[in-house]
Amino acid sequence: MPQTVARKAGRPADPGLGDRRREEILEAAARLFARNGYSGTDTQVLADALQVGKGTLYRYFRNKEALFLAAVDRVMRKMRQAIDAAIDGIDEPLERIARAVRAYLEFFAANPDFVELLVQERAQFKDRKKPTYFEYREAGLARWQALYRSMMGQGRIRKMPVERITDVFGDLVYGTMVTNYFTGQRKSPEEQARNILDIVYHGILSDEERNKRRPV
C-alpha cells in the first residue's frame, strides 16, 4: 500500500505585506520627488534605493505619474490622521478647533518635503480639475461646518454662513503653511496657531470699537 507523504507547510501568507511595501515605496518616493522634482526623478533610482526590481514598483503603481499622485495622496492621508489623533477625545468645540490648527501647522513644519510635493503637483499637473489638497479639504468640511452650526445654536458664536468660517480658517492655515515653506519657519507652530486663534476668536477691534460697528 503506497504511503502518503505529508506536504510541508509553507510560510503563512502575510496579509499586511502588500500594504507595508506600498508605504515603503511611497515614503522613499516622497523624499526623492521632493529632492529632485517630478521631472528629475528616475524610478530606477527609487528601485535601487529600495533594493527591489523596477518591476516591483510597477506592480503597485502603473507609471511614474500614478506613483507621484499616490505620494501626494499619502501626504493628505497622514495629515488627516495627525489632526484626528490630536482632537480624539476632545469634546469642547473651541479646544477641538485649536488642537486641529496646531496639529496642522506642526505636521507641515515637521514634514517640509510634503509641502514640496503639494507645490509640485500644482505646477506639474495643471490640467487636473482639483489638486489633491483641495479635494481632501472639501471632503473634510462637513464635520467642521456641523461643529460651527452647533455652536451657533448654543449662542457661542455669531450667526453667519458656516462656509464663510471654514473658508477663512482654511485659507489662514493654508497660507501660513505655504508662507512658512517659502520664507522659513519664522515662529513655532504653537505660536502661529495661538496668533491665528486669537485673531479669529477675538478679532482686532477693541470692545469699544466693536460696539460702534455692525457685523459685516
Short description:
The chain contains eleven helices and no strands.
Series of secondary-structure elements, N-terminal to C-terminal: HHHHHHHHHHH
**Share of helical residues:** over 70%
Radius of gyration: 23 Å
Structural class: mainly alpha
CATH topology of the domain at 65-212: Tetracycline Repressor, domain 2
CATH homologous superfamily annotation of the domain at 65-212: Tetracycline Repressor, domain 2
Give the averaged pLDDT, no decimals. 92
State the end-to-end CA separation: 95 Å
Largest sheet: none
Q: How would you sum up the global shape?
A: elongated
Runs with pLDDT <50, length 5+? none
CATH architecture of the domain at 65-212: Orthogonal Bundle
Could you walk me through the main structural features you see in this protein, from its secondary elements to its overall organization?
This protein is mainly α and 216 residues long. It has a domain of 148 residues: Tetracycline Repressor, domain 2 (Orthogonal Bundle), CATH 1.10.357. The protein contains eleven helices and no strands. Helix 1 packs across helix 4 and helix 1 packs across helix 6. The radius of gyration is 23 Å and the shape is elongated. The mean pLDDT is 92.
